[in-house]
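Might you be able to review the protein record set out just below?
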Amino acid sequence: MDADLRELNARIGDALARVNPILEQVRRVVVGQDKLLERLLIGVLARGHVLLEGVPGLAKTLAVKSLAQSIHGVFQRIQFTPDLLPADLIGTLIFNPKEGTFTPRKGPVFANVVLADEINRAPAKVQSALLEAMQEEQVTIGDTTYPLPHPFLVLATQNPIEQEGTYPLPEAQVDRFMLKVTVGYPSREEEKRILERMEGGQIPQVKAVVTLDEVIEARKMVDTVYLDDRVKSYILDLVFATRNPGEYGLDLTQIVRYGGSPRATLCLARAAKAHAFINGRGFVIPEDVKSIGFDVLRHRLILTYEAEAEEVTTEDVIQRVFDAVEVP
């Protein structure tokens, strides 16, 4: 067993060395925001879409764009606006008068990395056009279903403070995102470095350093990361504690209306594997689950009106769950 684990760690180290240049390239442009960049890489490796939430000016779009440019793939940025139509996103059928037939014109969603900028600016019919793409990795135009490029990843941003003219994402779509990352302000020292780097007006260029095949191989290596039964039970206990808090000694019945779904369990396991991978380990430890748990669960818990009145946040609830569930 130890020999197998050493061999797995060695193979993971080799695969990690091939994808680490992604972060090296992005850090040439983005100062600080280590948690954000790590979560983006976890999304890439764990086949999970990522939703970034933060006030304007925190380099969310720049980070996503830089990450996409570091990979030899097709990148599309879609600026979501209230007048956007589903056809602007997935494409439509164009009539060819010469032949008297309709031919498909594929939209910008046919890319390896799609940046959905300010996703909550577009109405529900546009947001729902993304659902099939995010879940099934395919798009239906007319009567024909087209597969999306592989790998396919949606990285979306939204502004939490300006709600006028926005359309909150429905729970069904929010649940399609593996991670919801809240982006905070940089430290004073980091902001000084940003000022010095941008003072001359020259933004460093990001080079494509990783191929799509290398990303796919790294994903396969993430799948091989060992997940012990005790860690599986820990993940299940965390999710079930959000649904049946009384069984875990938690008094959350007046706070939590709906807990995490089975998709939360699957995403927590996959994200924990990816977190172990980027730390060079071939096995998951409880710290991996704890580290990624807030980003997996924060958008999957629906709180009651009583919780909102008492100003209880999902982060407060998740922290209480982690404190109550025994660590293996």
Q: What stands out?
A: The chain has a mean pLDDT of 85. The chain is about 45% helix and 15% strand. The two ends are 20 Å apart (CA to CA). The chain has two domains: 17-211, 225-324.
